[in-house]
Specification:
Elements (H helix, E strand, L loop, with lengths): L1 H32 L2 H70 L5 H21 L2 E3 L12 E7 L10 E6 L2 E3 L2 E4 L1 E6 L1
Helix pairs in contact: 2-3
Length: 190
């Protein structure tokens, strides 16, 4: 029985090979029947069709990329606009507090009360900045660091421990999410 199965398999393989050979001969006969000029014209037409197809695909991809670029720019602009909007929205209550403080200070002769109100508003503003990732750079007594500080003066000092250290901070520096937003303007011991 296994011998007859093997014979059947061999016959099927021989039939497939015969069919493939017939198809190949038919294609060769078709090409052989054409003159060389006709074969070249046919090949040229096929090449033109392929080129046209690839050109359409290229134009489609270019249009798709252009749309992607425009959409990305629009989304980026919207993100920036919304970020600014949210930042300003958070500052408005502080502005309101300043306005109330100015109105209240017109009738108050006590400077301590005005100072206390200003400190409350200042602390509220600092808290808002910290919530948004903005932190003051602590400079006094720290080693001078060009990444964080901008030296505006060199102050002679007799104490060797103060050399290369920040003696005075003229203008505070700030970081936002560990990136320097503004360098601290400092006087450095020399």
């Amino acid at each position: 029985m296994s011998k007859s199965n093997e014979d059947t398999k061999k016959e099927k393989i021989e039939e497939q090979e015969t069919a493939e050979a017939t198809d190949t001969r038919a294609a060769n006969d078709e090409t052989a029947e054409m003159t060389p000029e006709e074969a070249m014209v046919k090949e040229l037409d096929e090449t033109k069709a392929q080129l046209e197809k690839e050109k359409k695909e290229y134009l489609f991809l270019m249009a798709e990329f252009d749309n992607f670029r425009k959409r990305t720019l629009k989304e980026k602009a919207e993100i920036i606009r919304n970020a600014t909007e949210n930042a300003m929205k958070g500052i408005l209550p502080i502005v309101d507090d300043f306005e109330r403080g100015i109105d209240a200070s017109k009738n108050v002769s006590d400077a301590d009360a005005i100072r206390e109100g200003m400190e409350i508003i200042y602390n509220k503003f600092i808290k808002y900045l910290e919530q948004n990732g903005v932190k003051a750079i602590d400079s006094n007594g720290a080693d001078f660091d060009t990444e964080l500080h901008e030296a505006i003066a060199m102050v002679p000092t007799e104490d060797d421990a103060c050399k290369g250290k920040v003696i005075d901070t003229v203008s505070k520096g700030y970081t936002i999410n560990d990136k320097v937003l503004r360098h601290a303007k400092v006087a450095v011991g020399q």
